[in-house]
Amino acid sequence: MHNLQPHRTRATRGNAIVETALTLLPFMALFLAIVDFNLFIFVRNTMQHAVREGVRYAVTYQTASGMGHDASIKSVVQANAVGFLNGTSGLSKITITYYRPSDLAVVAQNSPGNIIEVKVDDYRWTWISKWFTPAATASITVASYDRMEALPTGGTPPAR
User: Fold this and answer.
1) Distance CA 47, CA 127 (A)
2) Helices (H), 6-142
3) What are the residues facing 107 on neighbouring strands?
4) What is the SS3 assignment for 57?
5) Cα(6)–Cα(9) distance, rounded to whole angstroms?
6) Which segments of the chain have a pLDDT < 50?
7) What is the pLDDT of residue 81?
8) What pLDDT, on a 0 to 100 scale, did the predictor assign at position 11?
9) Which residues contact 44 (CB under 8 A, 6 or more apart)?
10) Could you state, in order of their start, the residue ranges of all structural domains in the chain?
11) 134-138, long-range: CB < 8 A, 24+ apart
């Protein structure tokens, strides 16, 4: 009785290893690129959530103990950024601007009726897969806006 399976030689076993390597390398590169791009999207969405929470906190005129209004807003944004904005370099990326609604001029005070903008500006994301784009970074800028309503007590908002 003859064996119907072909006899495997040493050369054919070596071909299988080479074919696996040639197939696995592009697959892993594609897989890591997908993971890297999804991490970028996660960071951007996290920043957008953080500034949205900062604006929600701002329109309530709350302040953290021992902090002014702007410093309290920045601390809320920093807390909701899941560690991406930690430290003073992270705080420097957060900006708070007040606009007069009649002409959208920038104003220095956070008065009722003004429009508040909380923004994370130019947060740099470094790609994991550096062999595709060496030393390339992506810039993330997100902002959220809302209108400062009147205080229930009729007083003025806390200082910046």
Assistant:
1) 17
2) 10-58, 69-80, 87-92
3) 98
4) helix
5) 9
6) none
7) 95
8) 57
9) 140, 142
10) 10-147
11) 138/40
